[in-house]
Design goal:
Blueprint: H1 3-15, H2 18-25, H3 29-43, E1 48-49, E2 56-57, H4 59-87, E3 91-97, H5 106-116, E4 120-126, H6 129-137, E5 143-146, E6 155-170, E7 190-193, H7 200-212, E8 218-221, H8 227-235, E9 240-244, E10 255-259, E11 266-274, H9 280-296
Parallel strand pairs: 3-4, 3-5, 7-8, 7-9
Antiparallel strand pairs: 1-2, 5-11, 6-9, 6-10, 6-11
Helix pairs in contact: 1-2, 1-3, 1-4, 2-3, 5-9
InterPro entries: LysR_HTH_N (IPR000847), LysR_subst-bd (IPR005119), WH-like_DNA-bd_sf (IPR036388), WH_DNA-bd_sf (IPR036390)
GO molecular function: DNA binding; DNA-binding transcription factor activity
Keywords: DNA-binding, Transcription, Transcription regulation
């Protein structure tokens, strides 16, 4: 049995006229009548009582109409599902985010994406930079959001926004009385930092900025902690820290955040993906995310 004939039958019962139904279907009236007769022959039952005007459905016709509507609706849903899967609106996506980006605008954007694309199952995890880059390279992660521009033949990236660093100080520190702090003013301070292996690019960038300001920082390495832990260590008086400005949303008693005087120290938030693995779902996420950041980023994108 051809579903096309079921479609003709449903339209005919809706229009209650062979002429009107044929015009709606853009076929001739004799052709429509012939298709309905073939449907009746396939089923071995009369569907329409043609002895009255307008025609009436037989009991078999009434039952077939109910089943036909449901079947055609189901087929439309299946066709939409296949189309959504083909273009990427249905699927699973693994997203890795470095801890510092969990305190900015990106989590809310992920939430908006989930609402707009409910057919995409997002699996989001927190990863450090090095691990995340390795997972992307080995196709164990689909998309990464991080402060880095990883190098690798398979990895592609796009800059999202520039995030200036701030100085994190104990609130009773003399420098906390200033509106902004010059990097050179930190030369006698204990600078709390993560080990280099966690995020080599960020580590090297901070060291280079300090050297450019005329000093080599006194470093205290903080292992196995998060950025919020580092803010807590500052509150405890163990030193000062340089962190992306998004972390200034973390409010902790005994801590002050101050902008760095020019020249600023900055970090670039990027979205990274493995371009050797084709996945339309990944393409939808990357394109949507870049567009959304352009619309909302408080700091202009670098060109």
């Amino acid at each position: 049995m051809e579903t096309r004939r079921l479609e003709y039958f449903v339209v005919l019962t809706s229009e209650r006229s062979f002429g009107h139904a044929a015009a709606r279907l853009r076929i001739s009236q004799p052709a429509l009548s012939q298709q309905i007769q073939r449907l009746e022959k396939d089923l071995g039952a009369k569907l329409i009582d043609r002895s009255v005007t307008p025609f009436e459905l037989t009991q078999a016709g009434i039952k077939l109409l109910a089943h036909s509507r449901k079947l055609l609706d189901d087929l439309q849903e299946i066709d939409a599902l296949v189309t959504d899967s083909r273009v990427g609106r249905v699927g699973r996506l693994r997203i890795g985010i470095v801890p510092s980006l969990l305190y900015g605008d990106l989590p809310a954007m992920v939430r908006s994406f989930r609402a707009q694309f409910p057919g995409i199952d997002l699996r989001v995890s927190k990863e450090n930079t090095n691990d995340l880059v390795d997972m992307l390279s080995m196709a164990q992660m689909d998309v990464g959001l991080l402060y880095s521009k990883p190098r690798g033949e398979a990895l592609s990236h796009s800059e999202l926004y520039v995030d200036p660093y701030v100085v994190v100080l104990p609130s009773d520190h003399p420098l906390a009385a200033q509106d902004e702090v010059g990097l050179g003013q930190l030369q006698d301070e204990e600078l709390l930092m993560f080990p280099r292996h966690g995020s080599p690019e960020a580590y090297d960038g901070m060291i280079a900025a300090c050297v450019a300001a005329g000093f080599s920082p006194r470093r205290t390495m903080i292992s196995g902690t998060t950025y919020t832990d580092q803010i807590g260590f500052v509150a405890a008086g163990l030193g000062v820290s340089l962190l992306p400005s998004r972390l200034a949303t973390v409010r902790l008693t005994g801590v002050a955040y101050r902008p760095i005087a020019a020249p600023a120290v900055t970090s670039i938030a990027t979205i990274v993906w493995n371009s050797s693995v084709h996945d339309p779902t990944k393409g939808i996420f990357v394109d949507w995310f870049r567009k959304r950041v352009r619309e909302t980023a408080p700091v202009p994108l670098r060109r």
